[in-house]
């Protein structure tokens, strides 16, 4: 279980693996590997190959890579890596008097701050005497070392094919020359390493952070940053901060829900609907043509009582509160991010460093070169005409998929209209359904089944579009890694925004608005009569839709994130269990884990931002949404940390000083959320009509809302029904 070469001195910084498959490509792959490994050695890296006979299945070769001191200091200067020059002697902040109360939530100091705080400066080979170099083998942390080796691997050439210079490990992985490339974890997650010099950071992370029983503890952000790099560290800092802020929103939402629960019996509207002398005497027009009967208003008694849970005065207050909460969340996060930037030495880390690093794919595909007017160097570039064609294809593809979502939503609406009549006649004519007919109205039955169908369609479209989005972003050939990620983010977010929220927008703002009136109903495609809202309003249906899609997405997300990798790893390791543990080497153990790809974090952010939309855009219809999100996020932090620490290969460390383009997306959603919640209160809930009645039409001073139900209805002579509408 060693992370060193056979000599026990040189540390393994990276591992490459390949399988000797004797097919027609075999000679070509062998030639590429020889050339590539020879060029790596010319770049100063040291290699050691483990023969396939040594591997557990007898098929895989492993190439272990070590970066010696000379290589590390050369590339530390190239990558502008900051290193310690002196220990920080600024006294720490004054003790917080509340610290003793928060002690149960704290982690040990050694876990929270694994190394002292230093003053740092970018590394320079000429000024080595200025830095705190006590031990050359540990001066650069393992995450810095794997970042340097990865930088060399992505730029190392391996020959010329079809007149083009070929380079980069990514291309070699794509064409099957190598099967994997990864840095090693420092030890097993469930036990410490035998080597006394090992930091056992993975074990510490597992014990103190990645177990669910630690859900109430703070996160060891400095240790996460040290082990996985700043990019992953900042994601967990954001997720933790978002979860902390959700606690306040969840408490206020719960209070609003309890207000609705305790005032249910005082709600005048549902009292009148349930009263046999009022609601029992009001006969309503059929809800569908020919199949449906006339019905009494008091049959919707129970659903009108439940709608009061979410459609009450407290909901209005909660919508205003969430408008303020979302602004505070974003502003406080900017503050927190600025603090992390300072603490993690990212203040003068410019994105330009990354922008100057061209993607190897861009350099390989752009054969034409032109002089950069700033640097006066020849650089590859993509002609304007080629860019325009690629953007046209990309834009058309995205529009096609967005229109596909809208088409699927129309199909779900047609389903709602088509099955509504079936549910209505079934519930009227089936005796076994009579006991629950008060609770399970035809509207609710249609809404629940349509929401479930909609959720299944959402998941299928998501699965297909993910692959399309990556393909069209690759086709655009973005210049830098950052540009690539931003373009993919915008495409995926636009699609998922329409995919997840379109059905909620339909129920909130369109359903029941274009029904017409008895004798002149409006029809979809001249065939299906447009559906009406429940007599108690559409808000309860929006709540149902939101609950099913939001809860379903969270459950499915956790299954995908935790259970699927665990099953894959269990299946991969089942053969290895037959061998003694001392023959199952560290590089083989890590090889059998899942890959946390370059888009691993992208999917984590996307999942959380979509959830953020659910709790801000439609929160006026469902005050319990922040509570659901809080419970999910407490689980999410531990699931993400568990899978990263135990189920995935160690990702290559990467720098980032912010959450990037996601900040702009969150700002846009915050502005939109104020508009959507105002519209829900104004158009979807019964708040405005009630207030108008209260101030303009109410005649009973003792009970101002009595008579509201009768006032909100119109009278229709059934002799005026056309033939197609008559029951």
UniProtKB/TrEMBL annotation:
Top-level taxonomic group: Eukaryota
PANTHER family noted in UniProt: ANOCTAMIN, ANOCTAMIN-5
Organism of this sequence: Phoenicopterus ruber ruber
Record's protein name: Anoctamin
GO cellular component, one term: plasma membrane
Any one GO molecular function term: protein dimerization activity
Domain spans labelled Anoctamin transmembrane: 224-699
Short name of one Pfam family: Anoct_dimer
Ranges that cross the membrane: 235-262, 313-333, 398-423, 443-465, 492-509, 608-630
Domain Anoctamin dimerisation, chain residue ranges per copy: 4-221
Compartmental location: Cell membrane; Membrane
Keywords: Cell membrane, Coiled coil, Glycoprotein, Membrane, Transmembrane, Transmembrane helix
Residue ranges that the Swiss-Prot or TrEMBL entry lists as coiled coil: 19-53
